[in-house]
UniProtKB/TrEMBL annotation:
Keywords from the named record: Signal
UniProt-recorded name of the protein: Uncharacterized protein
Stretch forming the signal peptide: 1-17
Entry-linked SUPFAM superfamilies: SGNH hydrolase
């Protein structure tokens, strides 16, 4: 009887522990636009748990994040209140063709990310996805736009004074795009898998 009861309790405790959020869940935040949201959608669809899910960042290109008190950062802070200040943040450089983005603006995004994250947080940086079999596909960013964001991200990753990590490119192939820029369902799944490969 003793054994049965203790087994029962151990089982219950295990079940409760399983339901509780694991310590590493939702400890990674992100900033970016609808293209970051596409990654987050696919990440959640692929059962990714480490990074936040989508939180309504559509249209939030670089200039939405340069002012640390912007409505975009307020949205980020709401996520941080919900999950705790993130110990990692992915900074996605996402642009409209005009105005594009400067390296100075990218540096500002990184500084702001540190300010809104937990102390000592690890910062990741990428461009928006590129389109290897149709490079000028994304009219919103302009024909050279996606590559420009990747070049900025690589430059930041190589700049030791910034202490940020460039994990690689996100890629969208022709059949994975719905409007030239954004991922369709297959594209979201693909982006989500790429994110899992970078960050688990
Ligand atoms: C660089 O970032 C890492 C987190 O990725 C942090 O642990 C480390 O303290 C930072 N180094 C400096 C010099 O700030």
């Amino acid at each position: 009887m003793q054994l049965i009861i203790s087994t029962l309790f151990t089982g219950l405790a295990g079940a409760v522990a399983m339901k509780r959020q694991m310590p590493s869940e939702h400890t990674m935040g992100f900033i970016g636009c609808s293209m970051a949201e596409n990654v987050a959608q696919g990440y959640v669809a692929n059962n990714g748990k480490h990074m936040w899910g989508p939180y309504g960042t559509s249209g939030m290109v670089v200039q939405s994040w340069t002012n640390t008190a912007s409505s975009s950062w307020k949205l980020f802070d709401q996520q941080a209140t919900k999950y705790g200040k993130p110990s990692e943040v992915w900074v996605q450089i996402c642009i409209f063709q005009n105005p594009g983005a400067t390296y100075g603006e990218v540096q500002q995004l990184i500084a702001n990310a540190r300010q809104h994250a937990a102390p000592g947080a690890k910062i990741w940086i990428t461009g928006q996805p590129i389109y290897p079999d149709n490079p000028s596909s994304c009219f919103l960013a302009g024909s050279q736009g996606p590559q420009l964001t990747v070049d900025l991200a690589k430059r930041a990753g190589a700049d030791t004074s910034l202490n940020v990590t460039y994990p690689g490119d996100f890629k969208l192939m022709k059949g994975e795009v719905q409007d030239g820029c954004h991922a369709n369902t297959a594209g979201q799944r693909s982006l989500g898998k790429q994110a899992l490969a970078f960050w688990g």
